[in-house]
Amino acid sequence: MSEPILSVRDLSVTFPSEYGTVRAVQNLSYEVYKGEALAIVGESGSGKSVSSLAVMGLLPRTATITGEIEMLGQKVFTLNDRQLSALRGNSVSMVFQDPLSALTPVYRVGQQIAEVVRIHHPEVSVKQAEKRAVELLDAVGIPEPARRSNQYPHEYSGGMRQRAMIAMAIANEPELIIADEPTTALDVTIQAQVMDLLKSAQEMIGAATVLITHDMGVVAGFADRVLVMKDSRMVETGGVDDIFYRPQEEYTRNLLAAVPRVDIADAEGSKSVAGTAMRKIADAVDADAPVIPREERPAVLEVEDLAKVYPITKGAIVRRKVGEQRAVDGISFDIREGECLALVGESGCGKTTTLMEIMQLRTPQEGVIRIGGTETGALTRKDRAALRSDITMVFQDPMASLDPRMPIADIIKEPMRVQGYSKERMDERVDWLLKMVGLLPEHAARFPTEFSGGQRQRVGVARALACDPKLIVLDEPTSALDVTVQAGVLAMLADLRARLGVSFLFVSHDLSVVRHISDRIAVMQKGKIVELGDTEDVFSDPQHEYSRELLAAVPIPDPEIARQRRRNIIDRSRFERADNTEVGQEKTS
Amino acid sequence: MIRFVSLRVLTYAILAFVATSFAYLLAASLMHPEEVLYPPIATEPLPPATAQMYLDVRNVNPDTPLFERYATWLGGLVRGDLGVTTGTNKSMTPVIDELGTRIPISLRLVVLGTVIGTSLGILLGMIAAVRRDSLGDRASTLLAFFVLSLPTPVIILIVQQINQGVMDTTGWGLPAINPINPLLEPGSWESFTYQVKALIMPTIVLALTAAASYSRYMKVTTLDVLGSDYLRTARAKGLTRGRAMNRHGLRMALIPMGQYFAFAVGGAFSGSLFVELMFNWQGIGRFAISAIQMADVNGTAGVVLYSAILTLLSATFADFLQGALDPRIR
Amino acid sequence: MTNPNDIRGTGDAAKLRETTEPDANPVLGSAVDDPQLRDAELPEDSAPARESLGRGELLRRRFLRSKSAWVGMIVFALLVVMAIVGPMIYQYGPFERDLRNALTGPSAYHWFGVNENGLDIFARTMQGLRISLVIGIGTAVLTSFLALVVGIVAGYISHKGKWGAFGDGALVNLINLFLVIPSILLLMLFSPALQRASWLWMIPLLAGFAWMLTARVLRAMTQQLVRTEYVEAARFMGVNPIITMTRHIIPNIASWIIIDTTLGVSAAILGETGLSFIGFGIQYPQVSLGTVLQGYNISAPYTWVPPAAVLAALVISVNLMGEALRDALDPTSGSSRL
Predict the structure, then answer these.
(1) Is the ipTM of this complex over 0.85?
(2) Cβ within 8 Å of residue A143, ≥6 positions away
(3) Chains that touch A (3 or more CB pairs under 8 A)
(4) Is position B89 within any domain?
(5) Which of B78, B109, B133 is the last residue of a domain?
(6) pLDDT digits (tens, 9 = 90+) for B134-180
């Protein structure tokens, strides 16, 4: 192999902080060769982003950096800001995580792309640079690039912004592209498109790539080599096949095992932690009692023709309706006792609106909601207050859903206090609930900030369980957590369901997460349920085109399958308007 | 953009109108011009009929119901007539004329002070944020802190005392008590330079307070911008630290500044009150003080109207600026 | 009062971010967390790692570590002692005339000198300091209370349907109305009428024209908090709105309110001084620092330097404490990425 484009030797980064010095990166060494794709994988706080910012020379001034970084034969730490700036954007470029905040809101997208051309090629005229910007936007698949280049970032969707970021990154055909979690903020189908785009862009200009991600699935389809990081240190590094099929370190194995697999059903023996835990539980329960058929169990929640329409108004003084947006457009489903229904769809499909309509416990705008057989519209104030204990909710973000100023005992007691429990009973239940979710009763006096993300989510579950609910609504309960933590929380949820017989309405954007926990799946798109059926049926034989698309887009942490899929996509793009079903079928076969 | 600004202007106009009406009603009900009109030292009391006529013609007769007086005043307002001054002098000067001669005197002070103060404040705040913890940052932050901890009269006293000290030692100083020297021929070069010199100290005072508060605001928003993702992107594109700040940071940091601009003008107005009093300028501030002291209902309402319009104009200007800087609110 | 010298609000609602996640660091993310803090795969291990430092404890430590906080507290305490003890032991009263010594500088009898009307400046300054302290603290507390009520109610109801939005709009326009009115003019209008009753009327009067900016910030903060999931959770549990406000919203903005009240003390003192200086504030038989300053004589600096110095010391000490509190609450403010 030739000389490396980038070589990092013994890099350490430390920051001063309130609690003493924080070691963000310790003794990290790696090399990137021409045209190669290296993935740096790790969970939050593992130091992966900090190390790449160090390469770009973009760390804050408070950081202390030791070690050596050599890029294109130049030692980065010996360069001053001006010399480094000449490299940045020209020979090495970066794609950032959140494209909304990473683009300057007050400049047109076209201007921002043209700027990167003009910085490094001042001889190019403004006109030419803007023309180049339009070409680049076209190349990254933005429709109507000429018009779009005159728009501002806030007029773009998330996926389009990330495409514009990529256009900016490849504008000067750099030798090295660093992509820092480029798809984390995006929907799964968009994520697949953006990763494909990044891969083809890389191949087009022959650049080396460093991909920083927490998602093993994304890595499998993209990288040639993988570097695993944990707690600021490198765990292991190797070729992509070695890491996936022959991991040397315990941590790598755990990391791989924790990723929920969309492609493997229980029967085939998923290696994932969540799957294993859940199977164990399922076995135990199955042995106990014969399962009552679904039809004979009473319905906990019934939703019929639910619709929520938001008017689109115009005019500031006299508001007139110019149209309407059907956020939820006539959906129906029901949940039986002890059952888990997964509501799956991408952002903006109306999942959250549906949840809010149910949780309101009021007459919906259109349609009927029945809880335990009673219509929500017919409830008196008193009934409604009592019903609040039967249907509870677990929120997405465990940081935001617990009041930071309250000890967790008070947080868990809050619903019980509303229901008028006695003091002794509340104390008793808090202990029991904490044990139930795998926390210690001694923790009751602590504040939420003293817990980690996964532990906080457990507290959220304990609060939802406080008054013996019949139905728990889970709004993306694991999407804010690291994969290894996510597996633990999922296993706990499955365990609770089996032990307490409570029903779940599990909302998620991620099909792979719900595979092991749900009995039935409802796929939602643009306010409608496009497919509703048993989990196994939906996975093995999706009926609706959108379900197939969703399934196909979920990244699979298996390099062999990922390469196979990618080949299919390329094949498909070779034949214009190739049959869409192909992807779905190859996936499930 | 035009729609956005015109809508805001309409809101401000309504607010200004409500505020002025409110002030008029308050002034008319709280003040007692008739007590001032009958100075107790008058040798013999006026005949009741004459007194009534006196009060009626000035629209301040306490026997007329409040809302009738208000309606009369409102009718005048529509025609551009703000009534006449009341108080101890019987000259019945129209308020509008009085304002007309005084506004130019006050306005040059307020406008100059605000413009110099805000620009200086923005500059200092930005430098302080970019060169954080440098000597310049510490000095300007400390200075702003002290200026903001002193009431305007004390600042004026300090400035005047320094001027006095310079005058005592060198024999040369700035005029401290008059905006226009009545001994010099109006329109002459000497008169003009005198006016400019007389403007220096009051402007310094107003600019100093405005700059102090503005530099603090600017420092906070600039620090926010410095921590932003888009600035990092701009640097990743290959802009040096300084160029990234100039091209991407400055404009973003200026956007929230617009909101504070209206308050800066309001602050300059109350500041000019002290300045005019202590430098003996016959401007609006002086007029306001004497109008309230002499229970001049119409004069007070006129001053309130002037300051409301001033705030309205500056708020509109601030909105316009914000709209020009930020495409998201257009 | 739209006072240019009001140093509150410079942080504004942007600071709420830090209020809710005290350790947020843009670059490190959660790297600050101790490694053990992260969740174990399965729930057995749940020992929280960071030593159990309560938020209040952390704030207190940061505050006490700051030098300016100590300077502020010591100077403020000294001034309070002076204000209490000064008039008790001093031989002259604020209105005793010593015309033979009129316009003489500091001496053993008249510590700060005598003004042209034969009034002792030290006696007047100490009396004025008393009044300024009472007015400053009283006004700040009342202002915060008014702002809290208006801000929280407006912020809370703004999401509650059509009527809520209408009520919120009305309150916002009320705030704007008070901002458009040149408050100093209205204060000048009201003050003499109310002064006839009692000088303490100054407190509600100043507060009545000082609550708007704080209310605006509190409204924005409440709106952010109402959207958080824990307030939503409380709503879904059927918690009564008043309880939600007192249990969830107020504790989360309490630290900000404390800072704002502290800085409000200095704003109120400056407002009162200015008003008294032009003759519309505290009236005879009371004396305030503003009225003492009124008797300035530019050719005799001792007529105005002592009251100005005491005033400056008072305001600066209060501001130092307020700023130290703010820094303690928000140590990461403006951690730069450049």
Answers:
(1) no
(2) none
(3) B, C
(4) no
(5) B78
(6) 888 888 888 888 888 888 888 998 988 888 888 888 888 787 777 77
